[in-house]
Fold this protein.
Amino acid sequence: MSKLELKRRGLLCVVSGPSGSGKTTLCRRYSEENNQAVYAISATTRKPRDGEKDGVDYFFLTRDEFESRNTRGEFLEYAEVHGNYYGTLKSEVLSHIEAGRDVLMDIDVQGAALVRSQKDTSIQEALVDIFILLPSEEELLNRLNFRGTETQEQIDLRLNNAHEEMRHWQLYRYTIVSANKATDFSTFSSILASEHCRSNRLTPDPESKADDRELDF
Ligand code: 5GP
């Protein structure tokens, strides 16, 4: 008996949330566990932290390199965050979506607004935006992981940035109030699983062996 197969276009999954919300871990883990998903590595002008590798964690660029690639129209979106540029290269995104692979992007709220405002219909149809909220001020302080070595000014800056990011959660189609890594990942995966069933992203696979004498639609 032949079986109906549907082909689907990939999702463009934009994930934002304050520092410590676990958004990078969710995106990375999902792309590692699903071979039809990729993590979009961002470009940045900030300096690598200990252990960070070029081309793995970020593409580390000088300000001049970033600006000339931006002039050439290579970025899907970019924003200045904490005094550095961060941006997503189109080459990390568009061909994957066309090929039916999901692209996971961990970006700030300004970048997410730019992706939402794109006119390109293939981006609009692919877009799924998710915000990760923290449940309390106490949890936010825990997750920001202050080591007791920061000045009051640094603490205030990081707290303000986190509050500022969280003010935007209602602009996102989905919001996850973070519980723990396992629960958050399960909720995140369920959202993507539902989005995979949206009819408007599905088409009958021309390669499929479905016998259309049996299925009349
Ligand atoms: P960090 O320097 O701690 O790795 O990241 C700082 C912030 O930059 C995070 O909120 C992260 O989501 C955001 N970010 C990382 N990559 C991008 C990007 O490509 N575009 C935008 N707009 N923000 C990004």
